[in-house]
């Protein structure tokens, strides 16, 4: 040992505690003989004894060792919050790989199905078969592109999280106190930014919804009627239409429940909006109803996935006079008349045994409560008069 280090304490390397650092003691750049043993809470920088008296006079100063302990706890807490997000990203990445594999398998199965379907019409529908295969390939390419983009985004997020977490862990396990004090703000800021970005850009893997419908007509191909179309799943607003009071959606193969349409009804003159109601019929159709509050023109907008359906917005004329119902709103003639055989109904239904009116489950009954005068099933509606299918003589209902 030299005279210069005679008063220094020595420690064997094997006796060094885990996580300790052998870095030389840091010295102040302004006072080379003074070690940076203090930390200014106000300025957020380490300080030596002389700087504490000169530059940081009156500031709150703490030993670097004590400040490092607090910062370590904050860093550990940040890592605990990041770990579940890392697991979520890894699961999402695995789901992307599974979805891509399912997409390829589904595409292969559909290609085989298309080949089997076109065997009986080889000479007539070769062109149609190529068209179907091109549609499948186009949809597969589109979905693969979407999955590739999603995989790239998830990979980038996962890489950023791994880099930030690895840096923070190495800082905790091997970094000296001064490095921890200096890098704490940067590490916490990076982890916070990644966490905010993860929550804002969280997305689910889109399920594979490509299906082949061999029963749907596909028009003419070389003079022959051909069948079979590739359905990409979901509802196309361009193929939706409104008939009377029902929103008709195209029939689909078994898919997830249809998204109900969005509806907006307002008066053209006053600009006052009405409160409509939408009822799912569970058969691919939705029943839309609303009650006008004033006469005039109404504008009815029906949208699916944010896009107007065919013909939307619709113009509806509301008259200020409604034809009242002269009959009664009943479930059937048999119940409302007390079983009288000569009582008849505007729905035109009859029952065996000489009963001239309708009854539950019998021929002509609309399956719903209705008006005896016109057969309308809407209780709050205008009377449309006698239906064409109703008897022309003795149209009456006896009410008890």
Count of all domains: 4
The averaged pLDDT comes out at: 76
For the CA atoms, what is the radius of gyration? 39 Å
SS-based structural class?
alpha+beta
User: Which parts are unreliable, with pLDDT below 50 for 5 consecutive residues or more?
Assistant: 245-258, 388-400
> Biggest sheet: strands, sense, closure?
5 strands, antiparallel
Proportion of beta-strand residues: 15-25%
What are the secondary-structure elements, in order, as H or E? EEHEHHHEEEEEEEEEEEEHE
| Total strand segments | 16
Number of continuous helical runs = 5
Shape: elongated
Q: Classify the helix fraction into a percent range.
A: 25-40%
Ends distance: 121 Å
What does this entry look like structurally?
By secondary structure, the protein is α+β, with helices and mostly antiparallel strands. It is built from five helices and 16 strands. It has four domains: 25-51, no CATH class; 66-200, no CATH class; 236-318, Immunoglobulin-like (Sandwich); 323-400, no CATH class. The radius of gyration is 39 Å and the shape is elongated.
